[in-house]
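Quick start: what a row looks like.
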Amino acid sequence: MIRRARIGVLVPPGNPTVEPELYRMAPPDVSLHFARLQAPASDGPPGGAGGMEERTRAYREGLDGPAQALGEVRPALVVLAHTASSYALGWGHEQPLVDRVASLCRAPALLAAQAVRAALHHLGVTRLALGTPYPESISRQGRAYWEAAGFQIVGYHRLAGVADIYTESEERAAELARRADAPAAQAVLISGTGLPTVGMLERLERELGKPVISSNQACLWRALRLAGVGEPVTGFGRLLREA
């Protein structure tokens, strides 16, 4: 089979969610290629709340080796699949990171939050419900990011009792979306590439009557568009279905 596009993806080292979700959604003639970011050893679980801000900083500092290696497959573009990296930097301060990834990989680069933002604009969303699985400090950064990006946060919920984001379930993600939703919201965003989401997006959209966006879904949608792959992908929400 001739591949129309190669998409590179940089993934946090303990994240078990990005690869299977992107493989599940991707068209058959698009190939996905992954490299894992580097992070210092931690006493807690890789997706635990403790030390998450330090790990996020370490991912940026340890980009060189994984990004250069990923560039060897000559991808059409590279996605940094870690939404909280943008939250930590803040709205309007991401371009140096984008430029660095692009230079290391020798390919155009895309951050997860940039993909989400493009998806929301594509859907005409200005009033947003936001659900996050992060500790309070990073959740505050996320809300501030989307407000600074020009979205009105009309619904918000932080998932309680998250000991390790990488052991959470789709049902917990669905409950997060339900609790974040508000009547005024035009869409619900479930933030976080480590939280399993894609198997319940269609069901949630029928239930809530509006688009439901997840970080991984938006990453794939935007990567496909930037790579020139534009046909609809069914089964994973309106964003990909109406591409």
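That is the whole record. The two ends are 23 Å apart (CA to CA). The mean pLDDT is 93.
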